[in-house]
Design a protein that fits this description.
With about 250 residues, this protein is mostly helical. About 65% of the residues lie in helices and about 5% in strands. Helix 5 runs parallel beside helix 10.
């Protein structure tokens, strides 16, 4: 199995749906069967993109019959590769994730400051809720190592686990709001004027826009968080640092 191949359980989790739904969509012809390796089926990034497209259309009020007709019309009215290209653009990850697999003991060793098992259990439960990791027996599959490493950095600096968890949840809400701002701009001013279904000759343009929006939005967020951190750190911490006595002042 490669990085971009998924078993049915993993596919359903990433698409925020159920295994039962995945199988139902296959039965209705909305989703292609998986690649078989022995008795195990592996799904691709294209399957994930198709599931996300189905979910998006369901959320917008389409029935499964409507969606089947829409996909069929798309496929009959234009090059299938254009439809798949749009689906891939909608479903592609916004950043590369270098996943890690650790044992529980290996995870504990990363914490310099001793924390009790109760804190670790609570932290793991919260991380699972946020989709940062999952646990299978004694193995910890970390999907977002940079988030875990930031939490460890703060814990080792003396920040208690509970406020770190709270901050992580608040950050997720804030980032989702920011993401919605970008999506609303495209939906309101680009997609809605096109009507339903989207004209086949506009699919290529939408695919290109979505592909370009990803790095553009990320660059904006990077610049804004850097600016905000610079300002807040200077205001909140600069004054305290300036009051730290120097060696010369101590000798005087």
């Amino acid at each position: 199995m490669t990085t971009n191949e998924y078993r049915i359980d993993d596919l359903a989790r990433l698409a925020k749906t159920t295994v039962r739904n995945v199988r139902a969509y296959q039965d209705r012809g909305l989703l292609q069967p998986p690649k078989r390796v022995g008795r195990v089926g592996f799904y691709s990034q294209a399957h994930l993109a198709r599931l996300r497209l189905i979910n998006d259309l369901l959320n917008r009020g389409y029935s499964l019959s409507n969606i089947a007709e829409l996909i069929s019309a798309w496929e009959l009215g234009q090059d299938v590769s254009e439809l798949l290209g749009l689906e891939e653009a909608l479903g592609a990850p916004w950043a590369e994730h270098n996943e890690e697999i650790l044992s529980i003991d290996q995870l504990k060793e990363r914490f310099v400051n001793a924390i009790d098992d109760g804190e670790i259990i609570q932290a793991l439960k919260s991380a699972i809720e946020l989709g940062i990791l999952e646990i299978n027996e004694n193995r910890v599959h970390v999907f977002e190592p940079h988030l875990l490493n930031t939490a460890i950095l703060l814990t080792n600096a003396g920040v208690p686990m509970e406020p770190i968890i709270t901050a992580g949840k608040e950050l997720r809400v804030t980032v989702n709001i920011i993401a919605q701002l970008f999506v609303d701009l495209v939906t309101k001013y680009v997609m809605d004027p096109l009507g339903e279904p989207i004209p086949s000759d506009k699919v290529g343009e939408l695919t290109e826009l979505i592909s370009k929006l990803r790095p553009a939005a990320k660059a904006v967020l990077d610049a804004e968080i850097s600016r905000a951190l610079e300002n807040v750190i200077q205001i909140e911490l600069g004054e305290r640092v300036s009051r730290v006595p120097t060696q010369e002042a101590k000798r005087a």
